[in-house]
Design goal:
It catalyses: RX + glutathione = an S-substituted glutathione + a halide anion + H(+). InterPro entries: Glutathione-S-Trfase_C-like (IPR010987), Glutathione-S-Trfase_C_sf (IPR036282), Glutathione_S-Trfase (IPR040079), Glutathione_S-Trfase_N (IPR004045), GST_alpha (IPR003080), GST_C (IPR004046), GST_superfamily (IPR050213), Thioredoxin-like_sf (IPR036249). Keywords: Transferase. It is an enzyme of class 2 (transferase). By secondary structure, this protein is an alpha+beta fold. The chain folds into two domains: 97 residues, Glutaredoxin (3-Layer(aba) Sandwich); 104 residues, Glutathione S-transferase Yfyf (Class Pi), Chain A, domain 2, CATH 1.20.1050.10. 56% of the residues lie in helices and 7% in strands. The protein is built from nine helices and four strands, in the order E-H-E-H-E-E-H-H-H-H-H-H-H. A four-stranded mixed beta sheet has the order 2-1-3-4, with helices on one face. Strand 1, helix 1 and strand 2 form a beta-alpha-beta unit. Helix 4 packs antiparallel against helix 5 and helix 4 packs parallel to helix 6. It is globular. The protein binds glutathione (GSH). The site of glutathione has 9 residues, from loops.
């Protein structure tokens, strides 16, 4: 039997968190090897483990996978969270890419210069309520089903619920006008695998605090 997937990243959300969410939701246990210093990262770079000298990197099924989207695609395919045919997959891809765009805006917010931060938060809130969430609310309303695609849980639901938690962290009123999204969040959060991941002590990572931000900047040599 293959061992547990091994995740290589720093001990924070960043680009690995969606991978953690997807594996956990699929009921897959994983190990984490945290990169704690720039030297830890250099070691992985120098031993040839990182195709583009970047993490996330996931050891799974005898491979060392890099590139977040490629990793997510592999996991979603392997655990049957990627639709039943190419049309469903196209829908899932479109939804997922939209979610990734908003997720990226939120993820890089801590790196924003202080004098630009308020404007950036205003923009993220606008995009959340005017561009992204209405799309997914409309999808759920249009077919009246429990999940976004094919009346079955897919990666799109998992990525969306992860995103809804971040949106709520930013401003809990942002979901007020999206009753179907709130219901989806509750439904997915109550799935046994997700419920477990949401409990304290799981591999889910908290929002980035000042100390972790400084550590991440040091590891990834961000000025
Ligand atoms: N397109 C890549 C980007 C990966 C990336 O930017 N990784 C950063 C950490 S979040 C990194 O490894 N930086 C170190 C470097 O580029 O030397 C992905 O999605 O995986």
């Amino acid at each position: 039997m293959a061992g547990k997937p091994k995740l290589h990243y720093f001990n924070g959300r960043g680009r690995m968190e969606s991978i953690r969410w997807l594996l956990a939701s699929a009921g897959v246990e994983f190990e984490e090897k945290f990169i704690g210093t720039p030297e830890d990262l250099d070691k992985l770079k120098n031993d040839g483990s990182l195709m583009f000298q970047q993490v996330p990197m996931v050891e799974i099924d005898g491979m060392k996978l890099v590139q977040t989207r490629a990793i997510l695609n592999y996991i979603a395919t392997k655990y049957n969270l990627y639709g039943k045919d190419i049309k469903e997959r196209a829908l899932i891809d479109m939804y997922t890419e939209g979610m990734a765009d908003l997720n990226e805006m939120i993820m890089v917010l801590p790196l924003c210069p202080p004098d630009q931060k308020d404007a950036k938060i205003t923009l993220i809130k606008e995009r959340t309520t005017d561009r992204y969430l209405p799309v997914f609310e409309k999808v759920l309303k249009s077919h009246g089903q429990d999940y976004l695609v094919g009346n079955k849980l897919s990666r799109a639901d998992i990525h969306l619920v992860e995103l809804l938690y971040y949106v709520e962290e930013l401003d809990s009123s942002l979901l007020a006008n999206f009753p179907l999204l709130k219901a989806l969040k509750t439904r997915v959060s109550n799935l046994p695998t997700v419920k477990k991941f949401l409990q304290p002590g799981s591999p889910r990572k908290p929002p980035l605090d000042e100390k972790s931000l400084e550590q991440a900047k040091k590891i990834f040599r961000i000025n």
